[in-house]
Amino acid sequence: MRSCACWGPVVIAGIARLTDGTPVSPGDLAGQVTQALRNTAAGLAGAGATFGDLLRLTFYVTGWQPEKIGEFMAGVEQVAEEIGLSLPMPPASLIGVDYLFEPDVLVEVGATAILD
Question: Which residues pair with 111 in a beta bridge?
């Protein structure tokens, strides 16, 4: 049962913060990926969606370098089963950026889902 009578696209973003704004895992990419995905799952649930409804994921990562993929994927794998994210992931992009809105934010997750 969905928590809202929604139909159509759902766009959610998540970062590594608790609900009160407290940063989670400062300086730890894997830890921030894990928390950002948890927050994204909570946002999807609030709209009556799950990762099974995803069309696409977009990850924005500060200071991205290919050698960070192991740490990044460790964060994904740590939380995937808990939040219902299938591996391999649905279509996803990882975009390297110089910085996000605050210096301690290493990753932002964007999720687009469709409800029918």
Answer: 12, 57
